[in-house]
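We were asked to recover a plausible sequence for a given structure. The inputs and outputs are reproduced exactly as logged, with field labels preserved.

PROBLEM: sequence recovery
POSITIONS: 311
GIVEN STRUCTURE:
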């Protein structure tokens, strides 16, 4: 029992963070300590519990059975303590901490810049980490590697909290000299067009593909790219058509022609989080900032149809 007297709550928080991140370096960065402090903390914990807690396997560290047991018990205690601490008023100007947000290009262009500006202005000591969600958002939340997930991911389960931020619609983006640019876009014309698709290295497809398959339409892109970076440049001067969320077209469609997607396919952009951060004053405040920015974003209509000038 005496061996445990030297332990404090921050040591257990370090242990849980290393367990969740699988890295001493990343855990130290996340909780704001240097790696030598994290290593020293682990030495005290190992001596106290008479267990290595983590063993190295190749380039990874793996928790021991004893470590699994400790973390399962301590994690609930930390959540309870965080909930109790959040009962007091949250003061953004004085607050410190780090929040990890997972999202993709759509959300990073549409929401994150304004949200970050507000956070920096109102809570200058808060640190924000942005992670790529791709197809891993649900796993990231379950493994506690992120605090907030943004996107059209449609996660179902009792362990998740959800708040809708806004709903978007698909827009077709094309070059001004595309033969479809000066006429209404029918479903048949859309299917016969040449398409460019963002696939996150082949691991993801946009929602409208599954809607088309329900109608017996299997669309095969002529060009697949890993992200929305340089999408506009890919379209300019080509016969390719990109189908993307309308509000993303607001920032990518400069100088291009936009057409409504010929089917009604709503894109619900939601915010997800778990019990671990639900009662945290810091995380509640960040979620509210994201919700407020989204509410303002909803007031701006998606890019409309632009018809090229005839000469």
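RECOVERED SEQUENCE:
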């Amino acid at each position: 029992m005496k061996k445990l007297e030297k332990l404090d709550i921050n040591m257990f928080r370090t242990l849980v963070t290393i367990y969740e991140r699988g890295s001493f370096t990343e855990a130290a960065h996340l909780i704001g300590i240097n790696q030598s402090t994290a290593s020293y903390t682990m030495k005290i914990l190992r001596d106290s519990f008479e267990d290595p807690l983590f063993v190295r396997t190749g380039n990874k560290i793996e928790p021991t059975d004893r470590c699994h047991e400790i973390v399962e018990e301590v994690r609930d205690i930390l959540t309870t303590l965080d909930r109790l601490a959040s009962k007091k008023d949250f003061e953004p100007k004085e607050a410190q901490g780090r929040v990890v947000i997972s999202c993709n290009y759509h959300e990073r262009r549409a929401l994150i810049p304004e949200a970050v500006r507000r956070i920096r202005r109102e809570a200058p000591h808060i640190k924000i980490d942005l992670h790529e969600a791709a197809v891993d958002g649900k796993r990231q939340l379950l493994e506690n590697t992120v605090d907030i997930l943004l996107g059209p991911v449609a996660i179902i389960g009792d362990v998740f909290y959800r708040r809708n931020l806004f709903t978007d619609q698909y827009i077709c983006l094309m070059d001004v000299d595309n033969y479809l640019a000066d006429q209404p876009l029918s479903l048949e014309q859309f299917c016969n067009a040449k398409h460019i698709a963002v696939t996150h290295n082949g691991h993801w497809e946009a929602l409208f593909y599954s809607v088309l398959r329900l109608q017996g339409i299997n669309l095969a892109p002529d060009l697949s790219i890993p992200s929305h970076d340089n999408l506009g440049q890919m379209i300019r001067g080509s016969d390719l058509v990109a189908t993307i969320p309308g509000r993303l077209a607001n920032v990518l469609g400069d100088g291009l022609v936009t057409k409504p997607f010929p089917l009604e396919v709503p894109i619900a952009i939601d915010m997800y989080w778990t019990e671990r951060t639900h009662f945290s004053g810091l995380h509640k405040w960040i979620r509210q900032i994201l919700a407020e920015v989204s509410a303002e974003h909803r007031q701006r209509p998606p890019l409309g149809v632009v018809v090229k000038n005839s000469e």
